[in-house]
Write a structure and sequence with these properties.
By secondary structure, this protein is mainly α. It is 56% helix and 0% strand.
């Protein structure tokens, strides 16, 4: 039996003429793209709201830093909850005094979230932190210097 004259033969599909350009992204796909950064931002907002409402300066609400409890040494995160509480209350000076490194992290996070939201809205790729080895070493050295200075008498202003 000849294939083109067979009752089971599929007729060829005519070519589609090119249109004026890509169709605009539907609203549903935009909402899907915004879901991950939106949920991340909502989770961070809820965490800040909780820490802003439950004062870490009052004992019994949060655990004590195990490194500080065992050695008396302030780690890079010591004072982070007090910093987040002050930041959530809008007191930037107190937040910087509790943990300046954490406040810098809040601003880096905010910048990353803004970039992620804009790219998700426009349909672009998800931003990534691509740091080379020297940059990671620089971040580590900065954190180490922060820890050493805040544990010395002349760096008492950096201690919570």
């Amino acid at each position: 039996m000849d294939a083109p004259h067979s009752p089971y033969a599929v007729p060829p599909v005519p070519p589609v003429p090119p249109g004026p350009g890509p169709a605009p992204a539907p609203v549903r796909s935009r909402l899907r793209r915004l879901a991950a950064p939106g949920l991340t931002l909502a989770a961070a907002g809820l965490a800040f709201a909780y820490v802003g409402a439950v004062d870490p300066n009052e004992p019994g609400h949060y655990p004590v830093c195990p490194l500080f409890r065992l050695t008396g040494i302030l780690c890079p995160g010591c004072g982070g909850l007090r910093s987040a509480h002050a930041f959530a209350q809008g007191d930037l000076i107190t937040a910087l005094g509790a943990n300046a490194l954490a406040v810098a992290g809040y601003f880096v996070f905010a910048g990353f979230m803004m970039l992620w939201l804009v790219r998700a809205y426009r349909g672009g790729p998800t931003p990534r932190f691509v740091l080379r080895r020297p940059h990671w070493w620089a971040v580590g050295v900065l954190a180490l210097v922060f820890v050493v200075v805040r544990n010395l008498p002349f760096g008492a202003a950096l201690a919570p």
